[in-house]
Design goal:
Strand order of the largest sheet: 3-2-1-4-9-6-10
Number of helices: 12
Number of strands: 11
Strand content: 15-25%
Shape: globular
Order of helices and strands: EHHEHEHEEHEEEHEHHEEHHHH
Largest sheet: 7 strands, mixed
Helix content: 40-55%
Distance between the termini: 48 Å
């Protein structure tokens, strides 16, 4: 049976007003029908009473585990939780998100087995906006946009544990975009992706992910880090490409010519075709 590890990194949730949302998150994992799920809550040594709150919630869920120790940010905490994981696949659930479908992880495990244990499984994620508006982002077609931006929502991205470990986990140099850095590394290395058939995670929009300027700065730094193997970094030109909502043309052409990843080449070709059409029709 496919074992799934869910990691939740926390810090000062009481101060942030997230006491009830983390309770919902933990309960939603405990309520999954899949028989082999572990939930690791990795707290960053919160000083506002969060560890006691978490311990109280977890007293009802003996299969979940709590660890509290100093960390250097959310992705460092996620890495620490992943290092304790024993599952075949890793999922990362934020303290203000939750699984709305109790059978979601069971469906994910079946999809993994059917696809022959791929490196990455992607599921659509239900988006929750201010005022209770519900949306849904389809991750299957969005993967082809990954050379341009973070095109999947990480609560719906399950990575095989050995692959995550071989990549060294999240790169904590990137405060906001380490999940995009991970996705882009997976695409460029030619990881094998498969898709889960239905959404099971709900993601609350907002927070640090809504800081567009900071996210754009992180994305440019990620491009300079990973695209340097294909072209000499040019922050000014690459920022201009980002403003046009595309990827650097020199990088895309080099990926098509030089990359060993069939997926990366397909993403680059699609983006180049899109850019050519936009240049003709002015869109």
């Amino acid at each position: 049976m496919t074992r799934i590890s869910v990691i939740t990194a926390t810090w000062n949730l009481i101060e942030a007003g997230r006491g009830e949302t983390v309770r919902q998150a933990i309960n939603s994992v405990a309520g999954q029908t899949h028989d082999d799920v572990e939930h690791i809550i990795q707290d960053g040594a919160s000083g506002d009473g969060t560890p006691a709150l978490l311990a109280d919630i977890l007293s009802e869920h003996p299969n979940a585990q709590l660890h509290s120790e100093p960390d250097k940010g959310i992705y460092h905490g996620m890495n620490a939780g992943a290092a304790r994981a024993t599952g075949d696949y890793l999922l990362f659930l934020n303290s203000d998100d939750f699984y709305h479908d109790p059978a979601g992880l069971a469906a994910l495990a079946r999809a993994a087995d059917k696809a022959g244990r791929p490196d990455v499984l992607l599921a659509p994620v239900r988006m929750l906006y201010d005022g209770g508006k519900v949306g849904q982002r389809a991750t299957r077609p969005a993967l082809m946009k990954s050379l341009r931006h973070m095109s999947v929502d990480h609560p719906g991205m399950a990575v095989r544990r050995e692959v995550f470990e071989n990549l060294g986990g999240f790169d904590t140099r990137f405060r906001l975009g380490a999940d995009y850095h991970m996705l882009l590394r997976l695409v460029l290395m030619g990881a094998r992706f498969a898709h889960a058939p239905r959404p099971f995670a709900s993601f609350r929009a907002g927070g640090v992910s809504a800081d567009l300027a900071a996210n754009a700065a992180d994305r440019l730094a990620i491009w300079c880090d990973l695209y340097a193997q294909f072209a000499t970094p040019d922050p000014v030109a690459w920022q201009a490409a980002m403003d046009r909502k595309t990827a650097p043309q020199d990088v895309l052409k080099s990926i098509v010519e030089r990359s060993d990843s069939a997926l990366a080449r397909a993403c680059a070709r699609k983006t180049l075709r899109r850019d050519a059409i936009r240049s003709i029709f002015g869109k």
